[in-house]
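If you are new to this repository, start here. Below is one unmodified record pulled from the training split, so you can see the exact layout before writing a loader.
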Amino acid sequence: MLYECSGDDLEIIDPKAHGLGYLYPPVDQREDRDWTFEAWDWILLDALGLQSVEPDWLNRPVMMQVRMSTPQINKRLNKITRPFNFVLVPLIDAIAGFPAGVDDWNQFTLMTPFTKDRDAWLNADYTNIYDGKHYSLALEQTPNFDKVIPKTFGYILRLYQRHPEYKSLAPDGSPCTAETHGLLQRLQVVASRPHYIGKETERKWDQGEDLSLLTFKPAQFDEELGGMAKADPALIEQIGKVKIKASAREANVDRNTIRKIRRGLPVRRAVSQRVALALTQLVDGFERDDV
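And here is the target side for that same chain:
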């Protein structure tokens, strides 16, 4: 993040979108300046104790733009959008954002047809991809607790200012906190035993927004089995979503190996790694194979 400050005048030279780039812009983009210029201008003026004006889009819901690429979910949405079209997914306030009756937050992801009309986001109809139920957004909860409270851009940017820098140490050598400032020190890392976790993200991150970004979990292995490795429950669940034949073909292993991994049995570490990497190349949402 580069900026110039002369007295009370501040000019953003090169804003960074790290930690913000996955969000759909709250305003229409300009060719020469995107919304992060205004965001950083407000953040820095506030941090430096200078007079600042809040952007008029701070109360807009935070949205992710994702592509509808999973047939089962598209069917559950009752064809509100066509396959491979974009949809909007609101980020929900984890503290007070879930309505009454929602007990499993991992089974609650809302989406609505894509629109550039930001003023329509709050009043749109949202569908939970897991059960097909419909919900509405609101910035305040009702007495019936029947609304979904989304995170807003103001919420995200205020937390952004309080995010500690975990990759560095404070000037005195202690861990960074939200209050740390000054010239940071390098963080020394001491490696212990290796722990294979597969790919940290899916390849679809590089190829464009995809629904799998919301549900992807890296594959982990237990490395304390000598030359063998045992898949963790997240990988077993991922394999269970894909037909055995397809998994075996993509990983270039036999079907019995896939069956062993699905049952939680140890296999050679190299084979486990190959299967985990192969899963990132398969399309999410295959029918579960009961073989």
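Two things worth knowing about this chain: Residues 204-279 form one domain. Confidence is low (pLDDT under 50) at residues 199-208, 283-291.
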